[in-house]
Amino acid sequence: MTQSEHRTSEVLSTLAARHEGERISLQDLLDALKDQGFGLLLLVLALPNAIPGPMIPGFSLVFALGLIPLGLQMMCGSHEPRLPRWLLRRSFDKEMFRRFAGRTAPFLARTERWLKPRPNWLTSSLGEKFIGGAVVVFSLVLALPVPFGNLPLGLGISVIACGMLEGDGVALWIGLIGSGVALAWNLLILFAGAEVLMFLGLQLVG
Q1: Residue 206 and residue 198: Cα distance in Å, rounded?
Q2: H or E segment and range at residue 168
Q3: pLDDT digit string, tens, across residues 123-142
Q4: Domain range enclosing 199
Q5: Residues 41 and 99 sit within 8 Å (Cβ to Cβ)
Q6: In a domain? residue 30
Q7: Is residue 3 a part of any domain in this protein?
Q8: Model-level pTM?
Q9: Rg, the chain, Cα only
Q10: How does pLDDT run across 165-174, given as a tens digit for each residue?
Q11: Cβ-count burial of 34 within 10 angstroms (0-12 exposed, 13-18 middle, 19+ buried)?
Q12: Could you tell me if residue 154 is inside a domain?
């Protein structure tokens, strides 16, 4: 996991301004991001769960199913995400992408001020595999319909994604620890729920 020469906000702005052609495909975006592709995709899939909102059945499952294969690819040592060809061919109108970059790049730029390349074990190849395994575990729990459990997990994975984007080992540790705490919180809720259901079942039988 190495820090790219240009930050993600700069890559998006440059692609929107200089891309030739009327449409920009997902393949074009990943080619521009290079080793940052995993980080951006993780952020896109985790961030919706980190934003407070009404509980929608199955909402987190959709994003978790996208996160799991990305984590598995990282575990296997892939440095760039491998997606189906039909998905890579999906494209956006260039003007629409420019509007997207215009809204997203300033937010990323503000986030990037708090991030900087801080190499440690987690930014190594072995560390990236470890992060991939952790993302798989966190995503499996994220897929469960746990009340008040998805938001902290989504937030933790989002911090991990930001650390990957900027090669920031400190942010990676913060994201992993935060996600670990969120994982424990989810398991506690599941355990408490099971105990309540068991108690109610015994009361009905009695």
Answers
A1: 12
A2: none
A3: 999 999 999 999 999 999 98
A4: 8-205
A5: no
A6: yes
A7: no
A8: 0.77
A9: 19
A10: 888 999 999 9
A11: middle
A12: yes
- Counted domains in the chain: 1
The answer to whether the beta carbons of residues 195 and 151 sit under 8 Å apart is no
**Distance separating alpha carbons of residues 2 and 125, to the nearest angstrom:** 9
**Does residue 1 sit within a domain?**
no
Q: Of 167, 107, 185, give the one whose Cα is nearest residue 131.
A: 167
- Residue 146 makes CB contacts below 8 A (sequence gap 6+) with 186, 189, 190
E strand segments, 89-137:
91-93
83 CB contacts (<8 Å, ≥6 apart)?
Answer: 26, 30
Is-contact 137 58, C-beta < 8 A? no
| Other beta carbons within 10 Å of 86 | 7
Residue type, 12: L
Scored b (16 or more CB within 10 A) or e, 149-175 reads bbebbbbbbbbbbbbbbbbbbebbbbb
